[in-house]
Amino acid sequence: MKISKRLKTICDLVDKKTNVIDVGCDHALIDIYLTKYNENKCIAADISENAIKGALINIEKYNLTNEIDVRITDGLNGITIPDNNTIILSGMGTKTILKILEDTNNINNLIISSHNDLYLLRKNIIKKGFYIDTEAIIEDKKIFYTVIKFKKGKRKYNHYNYTYGINLSNKEYINYCIEKNNTVLTKLPKKYVLKRIKLIKENNYLKKHL
Ligand SMILES: C[S@@+](CC[C@H](N)C(=O)[O-])C[C@H]1O[C@@H](n2cnc3c(N)ncnc32)[C@H](O)[C@@H]1O
Predict the structure, then answer these.
(1) Residue 94 sits in the same domain as residue 45
(2) What is the pLDDT of residues 174-190, one digit of tens each?
(3) Is there a single domain that holds both residue 173 and residue 156?
(4) Substitution candidate for ligand 1 out of 27, 47, 58, 89 with most atoms within 8 A of CB
(5) Strand extents, DSSP E, 98-191
(6) Which of 22, 28, 95, 135 is least enclosed, having the fewest CB within 10 Å?
(7) Domain of 64?
């Protein structure tokens, strides 16, 4: 089965045999892949009727109608989180993800790929009692995606970890972050001294990893 680099990266972080809830499943390709190749029991959930229609068509195509539990719901509403679980939230914004996780507990593994505000995401998920187990940065069709696997437990982090994560091994990504900061610096009026210092310090930190 062929899936994108981004979806494969997410699937590779899922522990075998865990009970998966894929919130915002859309096409359900993650669930199909995990059921076929990773021995996971999956709940594929989405708020959109259209997305669920597409998911059901794909699931039927792979003969997995009796294997994957499909739900139409907002976030985790009405879903009982099973033991030994992995919750996946991918392709949504940080605010939506945090809202979905607001009243949850008993999550073991969380795999998140948000398309914005990773600082806010890391800060809040860590505040909920998780640590960063793994981070993967991948480039797919000229876009960088960060996939973060959180597990229950405590570890200490600094401002740079919250902002840029714990895996700065991808040089192209570091250069992309430096360039982004430089663009902000060129546009930022001189009077925003503290903000300028912060960005310069961040760039110095990033350059150390090149
Ligand atoms: C861009 S798609 C990502 C699909 C897939 N997870 C992926 O990474 O390729 C985002 C999906 O999240 C769903 N979604 C957005 N808000 C949601 C919510 N509150 N609860 C459940 N699904 C939601 C949308 O309907 C859409 O299908």
Answers:
(1) yes
(2) 999 999 999 999 999 99
(3) no
(4) 47
(5) 109-114, 130-140, 143-152
(6) 95
(7) 5-163
